[in-house]
Every structure is written in structure tokens, then in C-alpha cells.
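Anyone able to model this chain together with uridine-5'-diphosphate?
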Amino acid sequence: MSRMRFMNTEIDNLTMAEALQSIDQMIQHDCGAYVVTPNVDHIVQLEKNVELQKAYAQAALILTDGKPLIWISKFYKRPIKEKISGSDLFPELCDLAAKKGYSMFFLGAAEGVAAIAAKNLQKRYKDLQVCGTYSPPFGFEKDPKEVNKIKTMIRNAKPDILIVALGAPKQEIFMYTHCRELGVPVSLGLGASLDFAAGNIKRAPRWMADHGLEWLFRITQDPKRMAKRYLVDDRKILGLMFKYRKQR
Ligand code: UDP
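re: yes, here you go
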């Protein structure tokens, strides 16, 4: 079994190849599964956010996003095999979908961004079928009419894979609340992946991501929002690292 306890969540200790294989199987089994990709920010939010905890508890696959969590797992002497960032998984998934004929629906990001992401990805993965894109207005989750509109859109498009890029905890709570009724075999909460694919936000250079410096790069891109997240909120990860050290 790949599942193990890690800090305040379970995680699936898989390589990228194993994760893709597992997602492929979920598509074949078609039972409304969803995937979450915990990073430092999610772990900090999980400490207090009960809705996010519920969403995590029902996730079919929990993949570790970001070097700092890999370092913590080594510090605990129970190493996680590989960092699987949502934004690395996303292109791999597009490649798999193009090869196997799975259709995708992109939900999230600012107006128009999901459609640009689709266009760019279809240039890169020639046979990729994107059966729908929608970037909902800010605060949509509080408007039942808008939520119903989104659900109808997704049901009619009948994707095999739904990408939910609404940031944490919105995307995880959306999947937890609605996935079962959407009739989509597998959904994934992938944060800023549509922004990256659209070229809207630049990704950190590979060497920075590999050395756990993605946060530093993202602060330079969007100082106001990211400085609070990474320098204020996420500092709590240090205390949590010691809090969960003794756990078996
Ligand atoms: N977003 C959205 N609707 C919302 C809130 C956020 O579509 O109500 C989008 C936002 O435009 C961005 C993504 O959600 O594309 C979240 O990005 P974030 O930087 O939080 O993702 P992460 O750092 O987790 O990858």
C-alpha cells in the first residue's frame, strides 16, 4: 500500500509514473474520484480548516507537492519518493489524455485564462481533446445559480478528466462537494496550473523548484498576495514539523 500518515494528512507515496498509472485506473473505474496535491500551504491550512480536512479525507489520491515537504519526510526518516507538483503533473496528464483519447474540462483561473490554456496545450499535444473550459466569476461558490450552471456545463461536456484550478481550499471543497454528482471519472485540484499553461504566470526555473525555492520566485511575480502566504502564513510549517515528529 502506498498510503502513509504524514503530518496532519495521509499521503500516497508514489512516483510520478505510479501516480499517472493510478489516475489512468481511476478513469477506467469511473467512480467520481478526485486528487489533491498537498503543499506547505495546504498543510498549514489543514491544521484549522475543517472543510479542507473533510475534502482531504475523501480524496482518492494525495500527492506531495513541493520540496519542503519532501525534506520534512526525510527529517522524519520516512522519505516520500518524489515531489509531484500539480504543475508538473498537469502536462504529463495532458500527454496521457492525448495518447489514450481521454477528454478534459478546465475549470478555473481568471476570465479567459482556461480557454487560452486549452489552446496552448492543444498546440503542444496534438490529439488532446478539451471538451470545455470555464473561468467562473470571483465569489461564484456563494451563488447557487452559478454553481448549478457550472455543474450543468460539466455534465453536458462529459469529460473523462476535470481540472479544477481555483486555489486551495476552494478547489478541494468544490471537488468534495460536487464530484459525486458530476459523472466525471477523475477530477484534480491543480491550483495555478492553468495560469502556467496559459503563460499568464511564469513558472520558477527548474533549478529553483528542485532546490525548494519556488516560493521565492512566486513572491517576485506577485509580491502582495504571495508574500503574505509564504512569509507569514507558511512560516507555521516549522512548528508543525516538530509537532508531528513523534508520530508513527
Ligand atoms: N481562482 C479562481 N477563482 C477563485 C479563486 C481563485 O479561479 O475564486 C484561481 C486563480 O485565478 C488562480 C488559481 O485559482 O488561477 C489559484 O492559484 P493559486 O496561486 O492559489 O494556486 P497554487 O499556488 O495553489 O498553485
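Residues 86-100 form the longest helix (15 residues).
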